[in-house]
Design brief:
By secondary structure, the protein is an alpha/beta fold. The protein is built from ten helices and five strands, in the order βαβαβαβαβαααααα. The chain has a five-stranded parallel beta sheet with strand order 2-1-3-4-5, sandwiched between helices.
């Protein structure tokens, strides 16, 4: 049985290196994209993609926005974050948003192959260098000691949002009014109000200002 993998990264040399690294893995088919909009298009056109390697800094992807959107639209697609940013906080947020793995761009070929096999086996893959750093491990509360527990809880709650609610929240965080959001999404203002109410309830915040600020903080890397 073949596995289809989408490599989403804007650097041709890195995509080529990824393809070379994965060449030894049997029964895989590779697809490549260089921008986040193209990545969404590819996911829509290829409903049999099993695994997505997602660069956090490719064009059209601001911080962790792309990861949150992919998880909301395609919850069955396994996502492995690939990034030059190796900070524990970025890893923790990525896992809270549903990533199945986190690969620094400095990783070796063996690490990449190990990550693919581990994630396809239904397990979470974390670089060996951070296995003992519990703050970066999924499903842990060790971040309490670092003062990030509240933000981590918020990031986890984002997974409850529907794709439409996530879009509305993103626009709220950009300062758009309900009327402007309704125009941009071609929906009624009352529908926008319903989405905003649902977002506030699911995220456990009291108003749209707090929701927007918390979202910006959660997506920042």
């Amino acid at each position: 049985m073949s596995v289809k993998i989408l490599i989403a990264d804007d650097h041709p040399l890195f995509r080529a290196a990824m393809c070379h690294a994965l060449a030894s893995v049997e029964h895989i088919e590779l697809v490549e994209t260089s921008t986040f909009p193209d990545t969404l298009t590819s996911l829509e056109e290829n409903d049999d993609i099993d695994l997505l390697f997602l660069d956090l800094t490719m064009p059209g992807n601001e911080g962790l926005n792309g990861l949150a959107e992919v998880h909301a639209l395609y919850p069955d697609v396994l996502v492995v974050v690939i990034t030059a940013q190796e900070e524990p906080d970025v890893m923790a947020k990525s896992f809270a948003l549903g990533a199945s793995g986190f690969i620094p761009k400095s990783a070796s070929v063996d690490c990449i192959i190990d990550a693919v096999n581990t994630v396809l086996d239904g397990e979470t893959w974390i670089p060996a260098s951070v296995h003992n750093a519990s703050a970066t491990m999924p499903n842990t509360t060790a971040s309490n000691a670092n003062g990030h527990s509240g933000q981590d809880d918020f990031t986890t709650r984002l997974k409850q949002l529907t794709p439409h609610q996530l879009k509305v929240l993103r626009m709220v965080s950009d300062g758009l009014l309900n009327k402007q959001i309704a125009y941009e999404l071609a929906i009624s203002e009352s529908t926008v109000k319903q989405h905003v109410s649902a977002v506030l309830r699911k995220l456990g915040v009291i108003n749209r200002t707090k929701a927007g600020i918390a979202f910006k903080n959660a997506m920042h890397v």
